[in-house]
Amino acid sequence: MASQSGVTRRARRLLVAVALFAAACSSSTTAPSGTIAIANDATTAATSTVPPTTPSTATLSPTTAMADAVPALVAAAHPLATDAGLAVLEQGGSAIDATIAIQAVLGLVEPQSSGLAGGAFLLYFDAETGAITAYDGREEAPAGADPELLLDEAGEPLPFFDAVNSGRSVGVPGVVAMLARAHEDHGTAPWATNFDAAKRLATDGFEVSPRMADSIAQRIAFAPSDDFRALFLNTDGEAPAEGDVFTNPDYAATLQGVSEDWREFYSGNLPTMIVEAVAAEPRPGALTEDDFASYEARVLEALCLPYREYRVCGAPPPTSGGVGVLSWLGQLEAFDMEALGPTAKGWHHFIEAGRRAYADRGLYLADDRFVAVPVPELLDPGYLAERSATIDPTQASATVEPGVIAGFDPGADATEEASGTSHFVVRDTTGNVVTMTTSVEFSFGSGRVAGGMVLNNQLTDFSFQPIDDDGAPVANAPAPGKRPRSSMAPTLVLDADGNVIYALGSPGGPAIIAYVAKTLVGLLDWNLSPIEAVLLPNIVPSGETVRIEQGADPGLAPELEAFGHVLATDTAEISGLHVLAVGPDGSVMGAADPRREGTVATTG
Question: What is the CATH T-level fold of the domain 4-299+415-603, as seen in this structure?
Answer without folding.
Answer: Glutamine Phosphoribosylpyrophosphate, subunit 1, domain 1 (3.60.20)
